[in-house]
Amino acid sequence: VQDIAQRPAAAAKLATIRRWDQDDPLRAFRDRFELPPGKVYLDGNSLGALSTDARERLDHVTRAEWGQSLIESWNTHDWFGAPERIGAKLARLLGAQPDEVIVCDTTSINLFKLIRTALALRPDRAVILSEPGNFPTDLYVIEGAIAGDGARELRLETPERLIDAIDSRTALVLLTHVHYKTAAMHDVHAIMKRAHEHGALVLWDLSHSAGAVELDLDAARADMAVGCGYKYLNGGPGAPAFLYLHRMHHNAASSPLCGWMGHARPFDFTDHYEPAAGMRRYLCGTPSALSLAPLEASIEMLLAAGMQRLAAKSRTLTQLFIDLVADSATLAGLRLATPADPARRGSHVSYAHAEGFAIMSALIAQGVIGDFRAPDILRFGFTPLYTRYEDVWTAVRKLEHVIATDDWKRPEFARRCSVT
Ligand SMILES: *Cc1c(COP(=O)(O)O)cnc(C)c1O
User: Fold this and answer.
1) Mean pLDDT on 41-52
2) Considering only CA atoms, which of 18, 5, 33 is closest in space to residue 396?
3) Does residue 31 carry a catalytic annotation?
């Protein structure tokens, strides 16, 4: 690592990269994250890092609200309104209206609610379209949502064929906007246009998009969306997810999970379910007050940073990584699995390599944390809020080291844990 940095061309490049960090308008946000010293964290697309803002908010809600105000907090600290209040803030990152987003449950559960909503809105259409290799939970939840319903079927079409496959039999198209493995990004406007021409609905999974790329759900007249709170939104492990429904569909169908928190008047304790108006009917049970606290603080940070600046830095970070890898003869065995065009990718970069698992394990041992996705993908996430350009440089130099020295061939790097 040292040797390379001392070569004149490399030293000049490194100096340029350090200048980019100096001039980065988002630079101050990094200091608000509690990152482990000496590590380069490139997995914020899977679990966002802890910020001091998030930790302090959690601490406050725990001690001052739960600890001191106890049950009164549902009213006095508006725990009851938190799913809508945080949804309204998040809406600004998604290009949505404040009353179109609610924060609750998990992405998987919210997928179920919206798939069933879509099927209720299109009762006479048989087909749900998705793509092979979509994130597993999306496909599994579709299977579960239509199980026992002989009138519906799931059809998988590759991205090249997908648009043409949308027709008058299509009830719903369910796609992950930024692919979790390749970071390939679908063209929302093109898909929405075709879907609406044929009367089909579209449900977007924004798990790898929210907080990473610019979104304009309303302008695209996107019907529905879901996404995770713990990836680029930095809400913490297992943070509540979100659910978006365009105003044009409000009150037209109900959630299939008719819990009391989605009732129009939960504290009337009546025997019959009557859905609340708007997004609140998509709540099921009691909001997770503690888990919502760090998520709210984290979303406020993203709003302060500005989605346009975040997205611009994301494109520069990913491009720098791709360029540095391409410039390295040592890394010629890695095959770029992410679109080269920054307009067509999200905020992570993936490479295919037959020994991907061992290489990533060896790299993690060197302090550069990315992850591995079976069967052969090395994945590197670049969170614009806290990743420095110099981190990108360090990651590439360490990756070169792992490959040049055959370090990855050590037996301990072949062992797999239950989470990769
Ligand atoms: C991470 C991810 C999920 C996770 O769903 P959970 O219900 O939070 O486990 C869902 N969809 C996509 C596309 C993801 O990347």
Assistant:
1) 98
2) 5
3) no
